[in-house]
Specification:
InterPro entries: AB_hydrolase_fold, AB_hydrolase_lipase, Lipase_euk
Oligomer: single chain
Bound molecules: 2-acetamido-2-deoxy-beta-D-glucopyranose
Domain Partial AB-hydrolase lipase: 46-102
Radius of gyration: 21 Å
GO molecular function: hydrolase activity, acting on ester bonds
Signal peptide: 1-22
Family: Belongs to the AB hydrolase superfamily. Lipase family.
CATH superfamily: Alpha/Beta hydrolase fold, catalytic domain
Number of strands: 11
Number of helices: 16
Number of domains: 1
CATH class: Alpha Beta
C-alpha cells in the first residue's frame, strides 16, 4: 500500500491503524526554527529559538585543549536534578548542531530526549569552531592542530564525561554518536578501559569503525576522494596549514549561497553519489541544515579516516615507518583492541551506507568485549540520521531502548533481546 505514499500520508494511516502505539509519532510539534546566521552562536540560537534554555561550559582536557560543552535546559527542569545525563557527539566535519537540524522539531534527537526527561549534553570535539582554544596561549598553530581522532577519543571524551558526571552527581551516563563520533568512542573504550564503567551504554548511528568496506566496494567517487585526500593534506601540511578551512564561518556562508544557487536536485545528485542512494533530506531548508551542521577538523583527522579504509584494521595513526618506530616502537601503528570495549553498544546501521557495510560491521561486533544490540535501518543514506525525514520512524525504538537502559520503563530486557523489530516498512517511504 505504501509504494507511492508520501511519508506524511503513510504516517497518517499508521496513526489510524496503530492508534495509541504510535502516539509518540502522531503529535507533530511543527517545524524546527532555524537561525538565520551561521556563526559561533548558532547553537544557542537554535536551542533557544525552539523554546529550550541553553547553557555552555568550557572543559579543559589533560593535554590542555579548551572545549565547548553545550547543554539543553528543558523549561520544566531547571533545578539541580535534570534527569539522567545523555552525551551526544557528532560526526566528521560537523559540530553539535548536527543533532538539532532535522526540519520537523520532533525528529531532533537532542530535543526529543530533553522532552522525555533526559539531561542532554552536546560535546564540540577539538578542532570544531567553538573548541579551538588551548591553555598555552603561545602554542604553535602546527602543534595545536597536530591531532587525529585518536586524541579526541583519548582526551576529549574523558574531559566531557568527567565534567558531566561531576556536575550532575551521576555515576554514569549514556553516550550517543553518529559516524566518526562513534569512532571516537571506540578509541576511548579500547585505550582507556576504565571509562567503560562510566558509560552505561553507547548508541551508535551509522558508525564508521573498522575497514568495513573494501576499496573495491566503494563507489568510484568516494574511492577517488580517498585516493586524492592524502595528497591534498600533504600539500596543505607542507604549507603549514593543518587546520581544515580556518575560516569556517565564511565557508558556511559561501556554501549556503552556492547551495541555494545550484538547487536541490543537483545537490541531491551529488550527495547520492557521495553518500549512497537513499537520500531523504527535505528540500525546504536543506542548505540551512547542512551549513549549520558543518564544524571543522584537522587534516590529520581526514588522513586518519582514509587510513581506516586503506589499512587492514582499525589502528592508530600511521605516521610512516620511521615516525612509527619512534612513536610506537613498531613499523606499523598498533591496532585498537576492540576486546577492551566492554560498554554495551547499540548499533543503528544502514544497509546501503557507503562507509559501512552490514557484513563488515557484524565482523567488528564479534570482536567487541561487551554485549550489543543491532538495528538495521533500511535505505538510509549516511546523512539521513542527521537530517533525513525517515529518521523519525527510528526514534521510538531508540527511546524505548534508552528508557529500558535507565530503568524508566518496565521493559528491562530490551537491550538483551539483541535486536530491534524489523524496520523494513520504512524502505518505501519518501
Ligand atoms: C559559551 O560560554 C562562554 C563563556 O561563558 C561565552 O563567552 C560564549 O559566548 C558561550 N557560547 C555560546 C554559543 O553562547
Ligand atoms: C511542562 O510543565 C507544564 C506544567 O506542569 C506541563 O503542562 C507541560 O506538559 C510540561 N511540558 C513537558 C514537555 O513536559
Ligand atoms: C607553549 O607553546 C610553546 C610553543 O609551542 C612552547 O614553546 C611552550 O613550551 C609551551 N608552554 C607550555 C607551558 O607548555
Ligand atoms: C567536581 O566539582 C567540584 C565543584 O564544582 C570541584 O571542586 C571538584 O574538583 C570537581 N571534581 C573533579 C574530579 O573534577
Ligand atoms: C510499571 O509497572 C508498574 C507496576 O506494575 C505500573 O504501576 C507502572 O504503570 C508501569 N510503568 C510503565 C511505564 O509501564
Amino acid at each position: 500500500m505504501a509504494i507511492n505514499m508520501s511519508s506524511s500520508n503513510f504516517l497518517f494511516v499508521l496513526c489510524l491503524v496503530c492508534g495509541a502505539v504510535a502516539a509518540g509519532l502522531c503529535q507533530s510539534r511543527g517545524k524546527t526554527i532555524f537561525p538565520r546566521t551561521f556563526g559561533l552562536n548558532s547553537i544557542r540560537l537554535l536551542i533557544e529559538g525552539n523554546g529550550y534554555g541553553y547553557e555552555n561550559y568550557t572543559v579543559t582536557t589533560e593535554d590542555g585543549y579548551l572545549l565547548n560543552l553545550n547543554r539543553i535546559v528543558h523549561p520544566n527542569r531547571t533545578g539541580s536534578d535534570r534527569g539522567y545525563p545523555l552525551l551526544l557527539v557528532n560526526g566528521y566535519f560537523m559540530q553539535s548542531e548536527a543533532w538539532l537540524v532535522q526540519q520537523e522539531l520532533d525528529s531532533n534527537l537532542g530535543f526529543v530526549f530533553a522532552d522525555k526527561g533526559y539531561d542532554v549534553w552536546l560535546g564540540d570535539q577539538r578542532g570544531t569552531e567553538r573548541s579551538k582554544g588551548h591553555i598555552n596561549q603561545t602554542i604553535d598553530e602546527s602543534k595545536l592542530w597536530d591531532f587525529t581522532y585518536h586524541e579526541t577519543g583519548v582526551y576529549d571524551f574523558p574531559a566531557f564525561i568527567d565534567f558531566i558526571l561531576n556536575k550532575t552527581n551521576h555515576e554514569d551516563l549514556i553516550f550517543s554518536c553518529m559516524s566518526l563520533g562513534c569512532t571516537f568512542h571506540s578509541v576511548l573504550g579500547s585505550k582507556r578501559p576504565s571509562y567503560n564503567q562510566k558509560i552505561r551504554a553507547a548508541i551508535y548511528f551509522v558508525p564508521v569503525i573498522s575497514n568495513n568496506r573494501q576499496p573495491e566496494e566503494l563507489n568510484s567517487f568516494v574511492y577517488l576522494m580517498l585516493r586524492t585526500v592524502p595528497a591534498l593534506t600533504e600539500i596543505s601540511e607542507k604549507s603549514g596549514r593543518i587546520e581544515w578551512h580556518p575560516n569556517l564561518g565564511n565557508l558556511k556562508k559561501e556554501f549556503y549561497h552556492v547551495c541555494r544557487l545550484l538547487g536541490y536536485n543537483l545537490y541531491r545528485l551529488f550527495a547520492k553519489i557521495m553518500f549512497g542512494s537513499g537520500f531523504h533530506i527535505p528540500h525546504e531548508k536543506m542548505c540551512n541544515v547542512i551549513a549549520l551542521s558543518m564544524g571543522g577538523a584537522s587534516s590529520r583527522v581526514t588522513k586518519h579516516i582514509v587510513q581506516v579504509f586503506d589499512n587492514a584494521g582499525f589502528s592508530e595513526f600511521d605516521y610512516g615507518r620511521e615516525e612509527n618506530l619512534k612513536k610506537y616502537g613498531t613499523a606499523l601503528p598498533p591496532l585498537y583492541d576492540l576486546k577492551k570495549i566492554t560498554t554495551p553498544i547499540a548499533f543503528y546501521y544502514s544497509d546501503i551506507d557507503q562507509f559501512t557495510s552490514p557484513k563488515g560491521l557484524q565482523k567488528t561486533i564479534k570482536l567487541l568485549g561487551g554485549p550489543s544490540y543491532t538495528c538495521e535501518l533500511p535505505n538510509f543514506n549516511h546523512l539521513d540520521v542527521a537530517a533525513g525525514s525517515t529518521f523519525r520512524f527510528v526514534l521510538p525504538d531508540v527511546i524505548n531502548l534508552l528508557d529500558s537502559l535507565t530503568g524508566r520503563s518496565n521493559d528491562t530486557e530490551k537491550f538483551k533481546s539483541g535486536k530491534c523489530p524489523s524496520m523494513e516498512w520504512i524502505r518505501h517511504l519518501n
